[in-house]
């Protein structure tokens, strides 16, 4: 494992902590907060979809810590928008 791998691992750990903490205290999860029309949850789902070549819904749901119903509704909205 090289320095770049260590950095990537550290960044992933910080991002995981930040997600857990913002979810815990309930901030940033409304449209407009990020100067976008998307909620934090929508932005996180879009980000994860963009960075993964392929994924299963169950793996995405587990990684993001969202319910199956929430992820399903969000993905349906994305599909309705043609994304």
Automatic annotation (TrEMBL):
Residues 39-83 form the HTH marR-type domain. SUPFAM superfamilies: Winged helix' DNA-binding domain (SSF46785). GO terms for molecular function: DNA-binding transcription factor activity. Pfam families: MarR_2. This is HTH marR-type domain-containing protein. It comes from Streptomyces antimycoticus.
